[in-house]
Structure to design on (269 residues):
């Protein structure tokens, strides 16, 4: 699943490619993508509008249109947003597309068709995502604010970090990597972690995401597709049975919240 760094990389590319362009047409190839909204209702309101900006909130992409309308997109497991030179040449996995002036197309690819697209009326974007937690790469994500929400939670550390209502955008990979750097066992309850460790974790969350965003901007193409220029190296994620790069013990995997959690039993306690 695309996590915050991959979604941010997508947004940065889209900003350079479609900002300021007018939407001249479009099609929803798979109506379930916009359910319960009707495709024709969405298209009738977006065609003719200008793409003012491309923003991100957690793992959500917000295409800000003229007049205050917003296309809210969540990529889910296999979704991707890309710009093609000619909208007529699109892959079979395209679930929806918008034609921009000049003929280029903004296409929503999604092989498993789990992603969602929703049109928000002017002003609705302020309330549609109010349940999403603090942005970890924003100025609001201070050490004091993180310590406050962490100390009140009895959730295991890994599940806490992946709770989108607390910290927006963190997913399986980067939560595991941040916990490894902070030396915190993923099953340890948050309210039992010492203040110094929590402060360290706050800093490592930011560092891991910043490194991953920089890498994804150069190397990320789509879920499961990374170019050889990928620079972010996972220390624990996906490395079950391999030796820890720090202490040499074998990396372990355990189930948590229906997902696989990777950790080092020597470095994380």
């Amino acid at each position: 699943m695309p996590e915050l760094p991959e979604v941010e990389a997508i947004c940065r590319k889209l900003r350079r490619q479609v900002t300021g362009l007018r939407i001249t047409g479009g099609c929803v190839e798979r109506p379930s993508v916009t359910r319960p909204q009707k495709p024709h209702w969405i298209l009738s309101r977006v065609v003719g509008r200008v793409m003012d900006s491309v923003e991100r909130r957690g793992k959500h992409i917000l295409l800000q249109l003229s007049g205050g309308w917003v296309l809210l997109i969540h990529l889910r497991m296999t979704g991707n947003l890309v710009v093609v030179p000619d909208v007529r040449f699109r892959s079979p996995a395209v679930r929806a597309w918008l034609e921009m002036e000049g003929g280029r197309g903004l296409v929503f690819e999604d092989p498993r068709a789990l992603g969602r697209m929703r049109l928000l009326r002017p002003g609705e974007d302020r309330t549609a995502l109010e349940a999403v937690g603090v942005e970890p790469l924003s100025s609001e994500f201070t050490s004091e604010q993180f310590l406050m929400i962490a100390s009140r939670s009895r959730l295991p550390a890994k599940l806490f970090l992946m709770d989108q209502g607390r910290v927006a955008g963190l997913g399986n990979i980067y939560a595991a990597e941040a916990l490894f750097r902070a030396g915190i066992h993923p099953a340890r309850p948050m309210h039992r972690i010492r203040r110094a460790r929590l402060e360290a974790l706050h800093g490592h969350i930011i560092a891991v995401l910043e490194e991953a965003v920089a890498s994804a901007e150069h190397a990320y193409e789509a879920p499961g597709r990374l170019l050889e220029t990928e620079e972010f190296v996972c220390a624990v994620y996906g490395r079950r049975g391999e030796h820890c790069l720090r202490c040499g013990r074998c990396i372990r995997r355990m189930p948590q919240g229906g997902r696989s959690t990777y950790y080092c039993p020597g470095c994380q306690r």
Notes: Residues 195-219 form the longest helix (25 residues). The chain is about 30% helix and 25% strand.
